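We modelled the chain as a single entity of 507 amino acids. Its sequence is:
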Amino acid sequence: MSTAEREIKLVPPSGFHLPPLTDPGGGVFASPESTATLVATYYDTTDLRITRAGASLRYRDPEGWTVKLPRSDGDAQILSRDEHHVAGERGGEDGAPPESALDLVRSLTRGAPIASVATLSTTRTTVLLHDAHGRAIGEVVDDAVVATVPLADAVEFGEIEVELGDGATDAHRASVLARLRSAGATSIDLTPKIVRALGAHAARPADVVVPELGASFPAAEDVARRAIATAVDRLITFDPAARLGLDPEGVHQARVATRRLRSDLRTFRSLIDERWGTELSDELRWLTDVFGAVRDADVLFDRLEPNVALLPDVDREPAKRILDHLRSDEERAREQLLRALRSERYDALLDRLVLAAARPRFLLRVDDGDGDSDVAVLRRIARRPWHQLADAVEALGDDPPDVELHGVRIRAKRARYAAEAVVPAFGKPAHAYARRVTQLQTVLGEHQDAVVAAEWLRRAAANTNDESTGFAAGQLAAIEYRSAERSRRAWPDAWRRASRKRLREWL
């Protein structure tokens, strides 16, 4: 089971007691206090990779295993995490976590051994909150924590947590915080308990940090380093969602991360050691293909399923048999994906990517004043894929075949990725250009998806001995061919907008 956790943490003074939280004027009503003692054991690698990344893996009796993974919702006062409750017992003498829990943090641990690193005993006083209609809006807890860490003295601290649900309003939040502060609770502190328990070592940066660039024009290598780190961070972030399979977006974003990273290695190849970049890109191709098999099946299913409802009633059941076949393909691809993500090969690749994000292998570059300034280098890097895109469009005939339009789409994607990579240097003009090229890529992507779907349906019809299924596949294919034709008519206009000269004045 997975839930979203959104907490506001406050620091209580010594001797703090929760004040009355009922505030009719603010629409908040509080239940009586309840008190419980909670004992949780936290697990991590020796260098605390999980904790330093803002995540946690714990066992608490009786609720069992919980994995918390960081997420961002844009509110600087709220600690937001995805909370996953994982079934399984504590195994072995050290209470080892089950594989299903380790899976969710594997992109952080990269196969490194896991052991218990702290035990937190918490005396928790809880007040449930509801609105004037009796609907739950959240809870406030007052925690007194005693943390036991191997080979260290016990640590004691207090913490106030305000967790508001979807039904809570800004007025509810303001009312609760005002009452807590009037009772002496002070600054908002987003530090998780396990970080406070483990101290400075746990507060060090995560293994992958996307570097911030200064106000002045950045060095070309710093722009490249930021692009690489951003893609690696995206892969690590979406790895758990890709494993869970609850939302197709997890696989999609993980695949985008690998594609974008390969594109970044190509974009910045003039700055990067050729052998290093090529070897890394080649290994990423394997991972991209693994994600791609699942993603392609998901995209195809999402295209075809709504179209089944457009068919006559007599053809819908045969069409659903086609979808069943497609879903079986997706399940097989997912099994292969999970095997890959649990492999030593994937762990080794992640280790290489983490190192690449921190220390890319750049070539020595000397600014001789003849076109090697950072501005000139970055402009040249972004200009090259634009020229390749323009040349590909220029080479098209009046009625280009589908494969050539797909080639233009690939060029558009590379131009877009290159522009987005240099946005930290060139700002809004690069962003506006990238947005227009993205629109071109989207139109051509719709065309390609429709063509692929129609061809898949053609094969499905040819491989069935059931006439009704073949007929239904033909009707669905006709829908896709019409969709492809609409995109074919639309893409020239998208190209005209993307190719306006004023969009490229910064290049």
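As a brief sanity check on the tokenised model: The longest helix spans residues 274-308. Residues 42 and 381 are 46 Å apart (CA to CA).
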